[in-house]
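Hey, can you fold this?
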Amino acid sequence: MAGSFEKLVVDAIPGTATETRFNGHSMVGPLKRVLVCSPRTACWHQPERAARWRELGFVRPPDFQTAQAQHDALCRELEACGSEVEDIPPAMELSLDAVYAHDASLPTDFGLILMRPGKSNRVPEGKHHGSFCQILGIPMLAKITAPATAEAGDMLWLDAKTLLIGRGYRTNAQGLQQMRALLKSKGVEVLSAPLPHGAGPSACLHLMSLISLLDERTALVDLSWLAVETVELLRERGYNLIEIDYAERETLACNVLSLGEKRLLALEENAKTNQKLRSAGFDVRTFPGSELCINGSGGPTCLTRPLLRE
């Protein structure tokens, strides 16, 4: 494995050697451990929680049974690729949005950074991630504090020493400053990527809504929505850019999870973009996301918080 990783003793199995149980700094290595939050955990089945769908930006009232079945399909694909899947425990303070587990924390090689989401109903998620990850043997490195806001959906590891952060409505200037100061002492450079206004502050537009890293040299992009300086940065770093089929933008075609070793996890609804990826040499696995993903604007990357990659 690349980078310097924390080594933790597996106490549950006496006599075992130390092994790596967490890391960060890669978005494309083979995925070995991942945190999820199922619709059941996020209480999609409770009428009083589901009733808030409109204020949270969902397209329609959530269908719990369909969403849970789709999440189960997601988890089967993750396990089939060799990932250990951890479902975070339920908590009263979690909203429907908690199912999009990627945003509330950022694992690094040095521990977990707890985010402070720009969407107010999501602020409790960071603390919940931190408590559960400590049980999993993952220490907390730091947390983002007010007035800063930061969401991990705005953060892309370009390499082990470079983190690109989108500056938009979910991650503000103070969030960028705190991340830059925190990681500078760890030898990590933080770069800023300006994000467009898009549909406005109430919409969910992350940097990862516009870029998914597929391997060390390839990125899937919504090119027309990216700032020129971000496109130039990716090209200067040698990335081959694959454009989504723009007819599939609204069905989250750009939201694709790298499983490592040329394997990808995508939504089955985006057949044209998925065919582009297959033609580029990728093994694309799919699951249905009509209710779980498209209704709440969060795709495969949003649903997963990778904790360990090789």
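Oh, and this one too while you're at it.
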Amino acid sequence: MAKKKPSVLEKAGEIFKEEKELTGELFDINAGKGLVRIKIDRIVPNPNQPRKTFYEQTISELAESIKEHGILSPIIVRPSGKKYEIVAGERRFKASRQAGLKEIPALIRKVSNGEARVISLIENIQREDLNDIDRASALRDLKVNLGSPWEAIAKRLGLTKRRVLDLVGLLDLPEEVKEEIRHKKLTEKHGRALRQLLKEADILREVFEFFQENKLTGDQSLELVKAVKSEPGFTIKEIFNKLDRKPKKEKSKQSTIEIAINDCAKLSRTIEKLGAEKITKDDKKEIKKSLQNIKAQIDNILDFIKG
């Protein structure tokens, strides 16, 4: 049987348990009224929702799914006067309203502002459709709210510390670059490439525009920026054109003959360069001995080929 994926509440429970004590009410399914159906017009969004970007297309797709299958997972709310404020599940709420539902299944939890924010942050970080800039912002806010080191936060979320720091590092990028990543016109890899040029604003802008105009992949972008940093004095286009972008054959898939041909070509180029080197007497003896051995093997192969 497949291992059950922990819920947002369980994830939040683990973090809270490690950081500070709570009453237990937050994570008790019987707390408050438990699972109930609440009228849509009595539910209000969280004004401090960490998710900044909602895509109308995905909301519409979710609404269609809800029309056909209903809501598979309840939202989480907390009392707010005569209404209920969303703690987790705003996408489901928006899609349910769009689908024309009058009521929605929900879990009522009595939580503080800080606890509600942490739960909402964790839910957003776990969502696969969340863009990397909003996810990075949620991670940074989670650290502020919990005061934990990155390593502890990464461990609790099932991420590596490097992955967390790569994401949070995107927040250092210029706003126009973040906007492109936010709308998924550029990827996290594009962002990581551009971060290497933060101290060179003019070059960063030039490379950023080159990415856009030439529709470079994330891997191509990382390769290009590496070359840009190591080859000053050339234009971006010149450096890009010099890169070997042909797919390379894996050595394991090359035949012995192909390997021999490539190695002979390398040896030939190396021998050509020997004339320009200052060679000591001892080195001359070693080179002569190695070349004689190679010559003998080559003669044997040539005789074999002739035969």
